[in-house]
């Protein structure tokens, strides 16, 4: 029974690494592409950052995220709704409470 459990664990770890690698590659490609956007708001997402900062002001120390970081986080968090709290948690922002 132990070998089959080990196999399942290995498959989970390898597939998790693959997803993380794919998401990192997606962010890298985004960064090379996003440079061509003329509108800095498309890169910096000021509306998202402002709204999330306001919503989470009592629970998270929000830092600005850009389009490519959000793209990577959405890739990594494909099982989540990816609301402001999910983004803060996955981006490693500091929790206030």
In short:
With 97 residues, the chain is mainly alpha-helical. It has helices at residues 2-34, 40-44, 46-55, 67-76, 84-90, and strands spanning 60-61, 94-95.
Describe this structure in words.
It is a single chain. It contains 5 helices and 2 strands; from the N terminus they run H-H-H-E-H-H-E. The protein has a two-stranded antiparallel ribbon. Helix 1 packs antiparallel against helix 4 (67-76). The protein is 67% helix and 4% strand. The chain is mostly helical and 97 residues long. 9% of the residues are buried.
Q: pLDDT average, as an integer?
A: 84
Low-confidence stretches: 4-14
Alpha-beta content class: mainly alpha
Radius of gyration: 17 Å
How many DSSP-defined strands?
Answer: 2
Task: Count up the helices.
Answer: 5
Helical residue percent band: 55-70%
| Major sheet description | 2 strands, antiparallel
Ordered list of secondary-structure elements with their pairings:
Blueprint (H helix, E strand, L loop, with lengths): L1 H33 L5 H5 L1 H10 L4 E2 L5 H10 L7 H7 L3 E2 L2
Antiparallel strand pairs: 1-2
Helix pairs in contact: 1-4
């Amino acid at each position: 029974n132990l070998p089959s459990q080990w196999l399942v664990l290995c498959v989970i770890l390898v597939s998790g690494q693959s997803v993380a690698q794919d998401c990192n590659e997606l962010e890298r490609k985004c960064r090379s592409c996003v440079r061509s956007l003329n509108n800095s708001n498309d890169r910096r997402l000021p509306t998202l950052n402002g709204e999330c900062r306001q919503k989470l002001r009592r629970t998270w120390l929000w830092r600005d995220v850009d389009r490519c970081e959000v793209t990577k986080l959405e890739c990594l968090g494909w099982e989540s709704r990816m609301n402001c709290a999910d983004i803060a948690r996955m981006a490693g922002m500091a929790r206030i409470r």
